[in-house]
Amino acid sequence: MHIVVCVKQVPDTKIIKINPKTNTLDRRSAPAILNPYDAHAVQEAVKIKKMIGEGTISVLSMGPPQATAVIKKSIEIGADRGYLISDRAFAGADTLATSYALSKALERISKEQKIDLVICGLHAIDGDTGQVGPGIARRLDIPPITNVIEVTEFNKKEKTVLLKRKIANGYQLIEAQYPCLLTVGKEINEIEYSPMPNMIKAARYEPIIWTVNDLENVDRPQLGLKGSPTIVGKMFTPPKPEGGKKLDGNADEQVAQLIALLEDKKELLFANH
Amino acid sequence: MFEDYRGVWVFIEQNEGEIEGVSLELLGAGRKLADKLSVPLSGVLLGLEIKELCPEIISYGADQVFVVDHAVLKDYRTESYMKGVILLAEKYKPEIFLYGATPNGKDLASAVATDLSTGLTADTTMLDVDLDNRLLEASRPAFGGNIMATILCKKHRPQMGTVRPKVMKALEKDNSRIGKIIEEEIFLQEEDMRTKVLKIVKDVTKKARLTDAHVVVAGGKGMGDLQGFQLIHELAETIGATVGGTRDVVEAGWLPHEQQVGQTGETITPKIYFAIGISGAIQHIVGMKNSEFIIAINKDPNAPIFDVATYGIVGDAMEIVPRLIEQFKVLQKEKGGEVSYV
Ligand SMILES: Cc1cc2nc3c(=O)[nH]c(=O)nc-3n(C[C@H](O)[C@H](O)[C@H](O)COP(=O)(O)OP(=O)(O)OC[C@H]3O[C@@H](n4cnc5c(N)ncnc54)[C@H](O)[C@@H]3O)c2cc1C
Ligand SMILES: Nc1ncnc2c1ncn2[C@@H]1O[C@H](COP(=O)(O)O)[C@@H](O)[C@H]1O
User: Where do the Electron transfer flavoprotein alpha/beta-subunit N-terminal domain residues begin and end (chain B) (predicted)?
Assistant: First the structure.
């Protein structure tokens, strides 16, 4: 079983600055981390490998040379090897161009070893779209199953996998043929402490780095900024609302006023659950 | 070449014959865009034995409904649904196509956008059109929510977006509206499907209740600790409300994630929303600002939560909330009748 996990390096969105000229992130302003959902995706691959007792886990990332850091982090969690595709030609990609570049890299990886399963994070905390996973699946013509909350069982003879997929009001129990692509959120597993040998391996690990020239049959206009149909028109801070009335007086008086205001909404209150 | 692309479409998500609320909201939002562009508004409905839903779609604002009814479409699956949607989009060429940002809507839109090789804006919260260029202006929170970005798709059609539930408003239902129903055939076979939905398990936990609740009592870090947060539960219980909280509260382990309100939690629009000990960070506000009647209690008079509150009380929650509970109990007695709590 060969599992490939797509991992992205993202700025920690808690601390972030925006370049007002280009309307893009000033990536230097925030520490770069492994997208938290992708950490769960790698962990799930490790779980699956344990569950079926064999397998190879590769991770794939597209980004600047520093993105090797998230590959090393993935090795710590338990991945066996990692690929980074890094080239100016990929820069400025939206989700359509990103899924194109990643699918080309996956095609190359599958020539080295056939891929049985691709796992992506539910979404990246910077782009925050969740569109790259299904995009890759379409391009590779494998079924996407998004929002997977549990990988229950593999049937290697039938080449099927049993999954639970979250929907608006519950979950679907799905049987999918593999190869297929899963996207996973945080509830699928807990990130485990990395065992020492993984840490040592990660520290020494040198990811395989490819440029656009290492990929085959690439239609260059579909890459990067050029291959991206969406553009950021403008950025603005949301208009500040007015706000209502503040009640005055001491605590008792404020409470009395509020109760009076809610009198005519009594029908809504005290309803049975 | 874009002259061929006309009309605004809304994907109508139905689950077991019931239309998702967000689809009706999108008909309301889509109606405005269609009127501005002087084009029809269409609903796109896929499923099995779902034709009887068409009048409802029209009564909420659609001029026409495209329906694909097929056994393979019984439960949502990317493979089968995207085939139907792409068939329609290629044949009738809409200029704008909106989907609810639900698990299924996002999944479908992502696959369709890839095959149609067009742009898709995720999790839109504001929609408008630039009439001169017939450009959809889809705005969404960016970079952790501190700023809004307007995303455009100039060179590809249809222009697509997923839209967050509960931010747009559905129109008043009008049964006198008339519209056209267009049925479309699709050739799909179950044998060709690589995924099977074996069963659907409905979840009737608190999460569903939070989005459905008429009255929500939400607490923030200002409640001090888990002990202090009990006051939130107590108040909620007294008035028959559902409990919500901020992300910080969820991270502290005072509440499960299902009860988080905000950008990375639920967007809700209850009739009454209590925000107690909540500062009102933008990421929280986007999840509750469309509530009808908002009451904020915070000891900091400059807390941004007061900017969205209908009424604010500047004070210590530890003093105010126990008094509120007491007064509500009095009010409830006046109301009389049997009350039971679950
Ligand atoms: C990418 C991203 C996504 C996020 N998503 C969400 C989300 O979905 N939902 C969400 O809520 N947050 C979200 N956040 C976090 C958000 O930015 C805030 O940090 C969070 O909402 C603050 O929670 P709080 O109001 O409980 O805490 P604080 O900001 O610490 O506010 C506590 C408030 O309580 C008041 N207070 C203190 N003591 C008392 C007292 N005794 N009586 C009355 N008032 C008192 C204080 O004056 C203060 O205003 C997100 C952040 C990021 C970066
Ligand atoms: N540049 C990238 N390199 C590798 N994987 C990516 C990249 N961008 C997105 N992904 C994958 O796609 C998922 C969803 O990303 P997004 O659609 O941007 O929210 C991520 O969690 C990753 O698994």
Answer: 8-197
Q: Best residue in A24, A149, A230 to probe B by mutation, most B CBs within 10 Å?
A: A230
Helix (H, G, I), strand (E, B) or coil at B147: strand
Q: Which atom of ligand 2 is nearest to the CA of A119?
A: 23
Q: Of the given ranges (A258-272, B249-263, B286-300), which has the lowest mean pLDDT?
A: A258-272
CB atoms within 10 A of CB A91: 14
pTM over 0.90: no
Mean pLDDT score, B320-342: 75
Interchain contact B177–A (C-beta under 8 A): no
Q: Which residues have a Cβ under 8 Å from the Cβ of B333 and sit 6 or more positions away?
A: none
B96-128 pLDDT, tens digit per residue, is 999 999 999 999 999 999 999 999 999 999 999
State the closest ligand 1 atom to the C-alpha of B246, by its place in the atom list counted from 1: 11
Distance CA B284, CA B256 (A): 16
Task: Write down the domain spans for chain A.
Answer: 2-222
Residues 6+ apart with CB under 8 A from A214: A85, A108
- Which H/E stretch holds residue A111? helix A95-112
Kindly determine whether residue A13 and residue B144, on different chains, have CB atoms separated by under 8 Å.
yes
3-state percent helix, strand, coil for chain B, nearest multiple of 5: 35, 30, 35
Per-residue pLDDT tens for B136-194? Answer: 999 998 877 778 999 999 999 999 999 999 899 999 999 999 999 999 999 999 999 99
Q: Show Cβ contacts of residue B249 under 8 Å, excluding neighbours closer than 6 positions.
A: B219, B220, B221, B223, B229, B255, B260
* Cβ B303 under 6 angstroms from ligand 1: yes
Fold of A2-222: Rossmann fold (3.40.50)
In this prediction, residues A164-171 reach a mean pLDDT of: 88
CA-based radius of gyration for chain B: 22
pLDDT of residue A267: 80
Strand partners, A148: A165, A184
Output the CA B284–ligand 1 centroid distance in Å. 7
Contact residues, B window 51-70, toward A, CB-based 8 Å cutoff: none
What distance in angstroms lies between residue A132's CA and the mean position of ligand 2's atoms?
A: 6
Task: Kindly give the distance from the C-alpha atom of residue B221 to the centroid of ligand 1, in angstroms, as a whole number.
Answer: 6
Residues B304-319, mean pLDDT to the nearest whole number: 95
The residues near B302 (Cβ < 8 Å, ≥ 6 apart) are none
